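Supplementary material to the annual report.
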Amino acid sequence: MIQEQLEVCVNVEIAKDTFEMKLKGEMEQLVDQPGRFIHIKIGDGSFHMLRRPISIADVDKENHTITLVYKVTGKGTEWLSERVAGDKVDALGPGGQGFEITEVKNEKILVIGGGVGVPPLYHLTKELVENNDVTVILGFQSKEAVFYEKEFNQFGDRVQTLVVTDDGSYGEKGLVTDIASEFSQDSTRYFTCGPLPMLKAVKNQLVEIPGHISLEERMGCGIGACFACVCHSTNESGYVKVCKDGPVFSSNEVIL
Amino acid sequence: MKLNVNLGELSLKNPVMPASGCFGFGKEFSEFYDLNQLGAIVIKAATGEPRYGNETPRVAETAAGMLNAIGLQNPGVDGIIERELPFLESLDTPVIANVAGSTIEEYVMVAEKLSNVSTIEAIELNISCPNVKEGGIQFGTDPEVAQELTKEIKRVSGKPLFVKLSPNVADIVGMAKAVEHAGADGLSMINTLTGMRIDPHTKKPILANGTGGLSGPAIKPVAIRMIHQVRQITDLPIIGMGGITTTEDILEFILAGADAIAVGTANFQDPLVCKNLIDQLPNTLRKYGYESLQEVREARCTQVSI
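Predicted assembly:
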């Protein structure tokens, strides 16, 4: 993990309140697996004391960029959305443990994302598709919140992408779990990231197959020292730290 | 420039240390710099048994600060001695153990165990955590209870004892006098101020615990005022803390009456902050016309009576 001033290359709105930002620097070379995050300082830090953890949506090895997709939910992310090409962003990263997929081969994988939980699954799917067949189910609140459908579709024949919306304004109407049940029999493993109620529902529905869950939690330090972002666990100590031990955990390791 | 400072028996090579609870047990920060550069390390609070702490969310941002309600999560005193202290053993910088409990007996047991470990050079008595239902703050808001507890700890511990005072009191001077009378070797001040935030969407508190401890630059003036007040009535060493982010902040704390300082929330924003403050401190002191830390202490602000 390093601290680096990353240069903003691109920062554009790709869906309602949702921005895609590309950051250039050395940090990209340290991103060894999908699902890790970078911890970004907001402004000069004097007003916003806490950094914002944002999951890595993709890396570009040739151009040394990291892609982030984030939602503007408050003043901090609003500041981030106002950065323009050439600006520098103070980043710590890459943080945490991502999706461990080196052993995952020749499987039928279910990838389930909800809202702002979708971005890390893009990088994940890109890596998974090299050796596996992948069904991607993406859930959004409404049509205007949908992003990255086209990008997931570009992965070719081995990826099938389905979109659901809460209000039915785009794709199928319903929840990701409504569709996931259709594929649960044929799938060997699932990966998921999204709001907690969705993660709980997915975990409860797909008990038969191994699962990997990426959690979100309000963080303090982001490096494992402050114990702000813990989650109940089945391990000996009874807890895991989302920033250091996660954000990705085995489904049987965490109690949601 | 000489930055070394003596806090009674405790010798520090410089006045900068991380504050308890903001630095874990050091390991994570050792990835960023050599911890030997620090004046001291104050480790996360130890209780008798392992504690999970409060439910999440445990942190919330505020203007120039943050609220936390971790709730003293820790692996328990035995777990800390067994699993966390070996890493700190080889360091050439004093380690200060923060001690907490729900009862006087628990405090005493934890302090005794940690005092018997050679890695620990001093004890910081945590009588001011606002985030636990039992123990914590009520020990730090009643001078008689604080006095009694300090006495009991002194009975079992030969290590220098710093009592960490809570700002959530009407009479900080009375608290300082009470623990000094009971034998405290020094004071740490201040802990966090109890605060609260409410989410306008849900109309509920943002923190799962309801309230939390406010820290960061937002509380610095309170810390400066309290240290200044307490310095008028005692010669005990004071470790000052509360929103320190810059070397100018350090200067201000020492002018108020602190002998050393601890950095809390700023470690979350920048894991290298303590190292950077130590590196930059001589330049800042020179900028304000000081040739040593001792000169700053001698220039202490004594004019204001509050």
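Chain B touches chain A at residues 21-24, 28-29, 31-32, 44, 50, 52-53, 56-66, 68, 70, 73, 75, 216-217, 245, 265, 267-272 (CB under 8 Å).
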